[in-house]
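Aim 2, interim progress: modelling of the zinc ion-bound target.
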Amino acid sequence: MAELLFRENPYLKSCEATIVAVHGDSIELDRTVFYPLGGGQAGDTGKLGPWRVLDTRKGPAGGDSVLHIIEPGANAAAGSKVELQLDWERRHRLMRLHTALHLLGAVVKAPVTGGRINDDKAHLDFDIEMERLVKDAIEAQLNELVRSGAATRATWITDAELDARPELVKTMSVAPPRGEGRVRLMEIPGIDLQACGGTHVANIAEIGTLKVVRIRSEGKRNKRVTLELE
Ligand SMILES: [Zn+2]
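Predicted structure of the complex, ligand included:
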């Protein structure tokens, strides 16, 4: 199990770590700043020692096991110390777009059926009628929220507390990370509160201007709203 440094501080760009296991091109470390693909958010990329990290995934054991997928042919060995370096510009875009989806979920008042955050764009799918999704209105409301400049806040509750408050699970298809007895809540005071294990910016002003680039039907219960950063 790795110590997941991004949970307490998503702004950490590098750290030292020890390789605890090597499975082919997948490296496990005792600690990491790399976020593994999950909750719709893409896995991080960057450098591990001299090697490029192409992707980051959760390990098959689940929990806090993280696999750093490095370039083929690297000769990494268990026990060695390495320097980790995030591709920070990409991660920061992921953080801005991820936090933007929390705003989108607050602006569009409908059940969320799915979502995805890539480094160039992000989307949520809503169970809603197409005619209720007005591109210009959504974009204007999003940017008004961004300009309000609210600080985000992470807190923790127990699995039992979460079970007692099902309204905190907003995205039906993405279960919040649990299993260690506690779940992280992400709060944007006055705007949004939900269980979420992803990485977020400290203040929503950091997102910058948002564009609604597309609204499209992806099925009866999936009306997809796609955002980009300006
Ligand atoms: Zn989130």
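The radius of gyration is 18 Å. The mean pLDDT is 92.
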